[in-house]
Amino acid sequence: MRKHPTLEARALTKRYGNVLALDRLDFAVAAGETLCLLGANGAGKTTTINLFLGFTAATSGQALVAGHDVATDAAAARAALGYVAEVVSLYPSLSGAENLAFFASLADRPVDLAGRDAILARLRFPAGAIDRPASEFSKGMRQKLGLAIALMKGAEAILLDEPVSGLDPAAANDLVAVLRETAAGGTALLVSTHDIFRAKDIATRIGIMRHGQMVDNIDPASLTGPELEQLYLTHMAERAA
Ligand SMILES: Nc1ncnc2c1ncn2[C@@H]1O[C@H](COP(=O)(O)OP(=O)(O)OP(=O)(O)O)[C@@H](O)[C@H]1O
Question: Residue limits of the ABC transporter domain (predicted)?
């Protein structure tokens, strides 16, 4: 059965003055899939995420979330979307629970404690820590709370900017496992990263970006880590040539 994409970029193009940040980008991410965007600084990863979030408008082309065009159907697109920033913003003096309740109220979702606790358990958020002030949370815990906010909202797609950067290896491994389980639960994930090896662990597809284009779209299972690294370096060398 053909899966309808939860996230879709159709000839998505963004120009900042003379800079062509995104150049007719096409991709689709279905429920249960994770697309990792890999690319050097300036390749267009963050611009892609910002266009889906509606932070900036496309010059041409479309960004669709659950079939809703971000430009013309912004509220419906946003309702289907979750976002986990590189540094998840929380109110430091509020507890994790109070932060979750606040963000759930913004999304117009009443807090269902049983549902919340099931999500926290799924994300392996440390038991009991949810009642501590957010200022005490590690980066990994903040990422998990960001994911919990998105899941409590019922987001069909979650965008993550550099989710494993700055995590120690154990926390990164844990988050990778959590992301895989989240996708397996039926959410579509779009992840921007510089980390080739983590991308291989997280992704069902890897898109290599260069100059605002996706120059390769790889099944990570088809390559070993070193093969993927070599392919990536070849694409980057082409850039320099
Ligand atoms: N607000 C802006 N105004 C002008 N140019 C911008 C703006 N945002 C991004 N750009 C340019 O668009 C291009 C793509 O940038 P983008 O931030 O999307 O890349 P990236 O792949 O996310 O890089 P990084 O890995 O450094 O985050 C770059 O040339 C960048 O300088």
Answer: 7-236
CA dist 90 and 137 (Å) reads: 10
Q: What pTM did the predictor assign?
A: 0.93
d(CA 122, CA 142): 15
Ligand 1 nearest atom to the CA of residue 192, by list position: 22
Indicate whether 102 and 208 sit together in one domain.
no
Residue 211 CA to residue 73 CA, distance in Å, equals 28
Tokens of 106: 């913004």
Q: Do 101 and 127 have their domain in common?
A: yes
Distance, in Å, from the CA atom of 18 to the CA atom of 48, rounded to the nearest integer, reads: 18
* Per-residue model confidence as pLDDT tens digits over 152-207: 998 999 999 999 988 889 989 999 999 999 999 999 999 999 999 999 999 999 99
Based on the fold, state whether residues 204 and 194 are members of the same structural domain.
Answer: yes
Distance from C-alpha of 146 to C-alpha of 143, rounded to nearest angstrom: 5
- Quote the domain boundaries for residue 118: 86-155
How much distance in Å is there from the Cα of 167 to the middle of ligand 1? Answer: 24
The protein residue whose alpha carbon is closest to atom 25 in ligand 1 is 41
Beta carbons within 8 Å of 88's beta carbon, 6+ residues apart: 142, 143, 145, 146
Does the beta carbon of 22 sit less than 6 angstroms from any atom of ligand 1? Answer: no
Q: Which atom of ligand 1 is nearest to the CA of 194?
A: 25
Nearest residue CA, atom 1 of ligand 1? 16
Residue 187's closest CA among 148, 139, 140? 148
